[in-house]
Amino acid sequence: MTTTVAATDDAGMAPNRPPVTAGWVRQQIARGRLVAWTSSVFTRSGQFAGCEVLARCPAPDGGLLSATAFGDLLEVEDWALVDRSMAHAAARLSRAIVAGGGPPAWVSWNTAPSTLSDAYADELEAIVARAGGDRSHLHLELTEQRPVPGVSEIGVLHRFVGAGFGVALDDVGRQHEPLDLLRQVPFRLAKLERELIAAAVTESGFTQLRDLTSACHAHGARVVAEGVETAAELEAVLDAGCDEIQGFLWARGCSAATLAHEFAMGRRPEPAGTPPDA
Q: pTM for the whole thing?
């Protein structure tokens, strides 16, 4: 059976577009046509802190598949190729930000625990050397902590840290595994999951957010609140002590090429609205 999904736009809607197959997605990957998409992150005072580089796949009609549709069609063996493609895009973007006079901002890309190996570490160092990025500005963002990283994978993370890269922990929330990882690896960033942010507008949810933020700080990690979409959520994450903000309330995504062009023109991303701490 051939797997298909409806092509969707950024809002997750399915306009009159033809279905897309896994074969189409694999073809785009093989031809190097993936789009590096960025999600900007800002400090509490509204300064550009960094961005996450995400892989997006072209749709047959010239648009982009939603992240969900793209992920649903990826085969297991495709993830490594996507990972390496986005690592290269992150290194190039980091170099462009510095060349454009931007701040020493971090740029991250996602990596699953199953990707971590010494061979991947060797390849990543070669990718960054070719792209010319500064390792200290590049963050490997560990996502999908299933299966839980074992001794070997944790050893690779320490190797990255020793080589000068930053590491970030994604999807920190109600599960215990992320906190266990924070005890074992010196993550620079801990990114709190969207569900936790949405629940923070309630008294019990806010208490959980505040306590988790404090726990992350205790392990030396800066805390990024992901998916902030409303003013009430923004107030909650700021009151809870989160260090950086990511989400549609302050910024929509754009391609890495667009962001690099903005820095080349001397323009820096700014959050929509006036940050409370400005």
A: 0.88
| Largest distance between two CA atoms of the chain | 55
Coil, helix or strand for 50?
Answer: strand
pLDDT tens digits along 190-213:
999 999 999 999 999 999 999 999
**Which regions of 105-264 does DSSP assign to beta strands (E)?**
106-111, 138-142, 166-172, 189-192, 222-225, 244-246, 254-255
Q: Distance between CA 142 and CA 130 in Å, rounded?
A: 23
Task: Classify strands 222-225 and 244-246 as parallel, antiparallel or unpaired.
Answer: parallel
- d(CA 187, CA 169) in angstroms, rounded, equals 7
Residue 222: strand pairing partners: 189
Residue 65 gets the label, from left (phi > 0), alpha (psi -120 to 50) or beta, of beta
Q: 152-181: b or e for each residue (b if 16 or more CB lie within 10 Å)?
A: ebbebbebbbeeebbbbbbbbbeeeebbeb
Q: Are 113 and 139 in contact (CB under 8 A)?
A: no
Integer-rounded Cα Rg, in Å, for the chain is 18
- For residue 278, the model assigns a pLDDT of 54
